[in-house]
Amino acid sequence: MPIIDTFNRPLRDLRISLIDRCNFRCPYCMPSEKYHHAYQFLEKGQWLSFEEIERLARIFVGLGVTKLRLTGGEPLLRPDLDLLIRQLSTIPGVDDLALTTNGSMLTQWAERLKAAGLHRLTVSLDTLDETIFHKMSGEKGSVRDVLEGIRAAEAAGFGPIKINAVIQRGINDHTILDMVKHFRGTPHSVRFIEYMDVGNQNHWDLSQVVPSGEIIALIDAKYPLQRIGGTQGGDTSETYRFKDGQGEVGFISSVTKAFCGTCNRLRLSADGKMYTCLFATHGTDLGSHLRNGTTDEFLSHLIRVVWMKREDRYSETRADFQHNSQTSPKVEMYQIGG
Ligand code: SAM
Ligand code: SF4
Ligand code: SF4
After folding, report:
1. Is the pTM of this model over 0.90?
2. Is 334 a pocket residue for ligand 1 (Cβ < 6 Å)?
């Protein structure tokens, strides 16, 4: 039986951040002026071990979770990740085991991930323009590597891949149609994400957000679209199909069309803090409890209590939310993985 929060939302989806480090420095997530060579990330000993992650995952599944997503930071930087996937894929009740990656190391990983039992991949790729991509990855990544990674994933036997593209006005919005053209006619679907005010470091401003409505109109004018699915079932994206049968495209509209009403997601940081919202200002430290010899029953009780008191709906209240990042900073995206 799933547990229900104060808005009658069941707990279904657990996103597990495996590491707070990344080989990219996307300015909207980990701006390099803050996350430089001397920045103190978590020590390796602070990361939850694979045994601890598996133990927590089993407890979450016992509380109604059916979907697990591995993320980061960059999850492919976590050594021996395939061993964890093997462990998680054997948990009865996990219907969906997915991973989100920047794709830059997928050529080395794709086969091992598939063999370990990973079901699905999401690959982030904001543009096909090398110069713009270079800038959007903090001068760390290349489109070529990511496209090769996607090809390696196809060759390893992964089915349709979701391609996440964060759109920022004046940065990559003029490259949207190129992305659509490239992935139309393939099994993969691009999901255009509205740039969000996650964390406190990216200097987010509403003027940098390109509303999904605008992107839909742009695409529809060139490649006519038909809406086929919304966010009712807990999905974050609204899905459209190309009327000419050339595939699908999705839109994640956290800013202009909030979907808190069906939000069934919980997030775990690499050191075991549990967050009930992407925009949370504090988490519940399950990691410390784990390391103090706590029983599964206690952990399960704690998670249940936190979820049942959950009132988060940040995106619906963003306009009148007087956030003070000085006194109560929000958790950062690279800590909980989106
Ligand atoms: N490093 C991996 C990657 O980039 O796919 C996984 C972690 S990353 C934090 C997960 C997703 O969050 C990526 O698709 C990224 O583009 C997205 N993201 C990060 N910061 C964002 C922001 N401010 N607004 C919208 N999406 C963001
Ligand atoms: Fe790294 Fe992903 Fe954040 Fe980019 S979005 S800095 S790839 S964690
Ligand atoms: Fe869920 Fe928080 Fe996002 Fe709303 S703002 S959809 S509650 S994570």
Report:
1. yes
2. yes
Distance 74 CA to ligand 2 centre (A): 7
- The two counts, helices (H) then strands (E), for the chain are 11, 12
List the chain domain ranges.
13-336
Ligand 3 atom with the smallest distance to the CA of 267 is: 8
Distances (CA, A) of 241 to 81, 141, 184, 223: 34, 30, 10, 10
Ligand 3 lined by 188 (C-beta under 6 Å): no
pLDDT band at 229 (very low <50, low <70, confident <90, very high): confident
Q: What are phi and psi of 28, to 5 degrees?
A: -80, -5
Is 334 near ligand 2, meaning CB less than 6 Å away? yes
Average pLDDT rounded to a whole number, residues 150-172? 98
What's the pLDDT tens digit per position in 252-280?
A: 999 999 999 999 999 999 999 999 999 99
Average pLDDT, integer, range 199-224: 95
13-336 CATH pick, 1.50.10.10, 3.30.70.100, 3.40.50.920, 3.20.20.70: 3.20.20.70
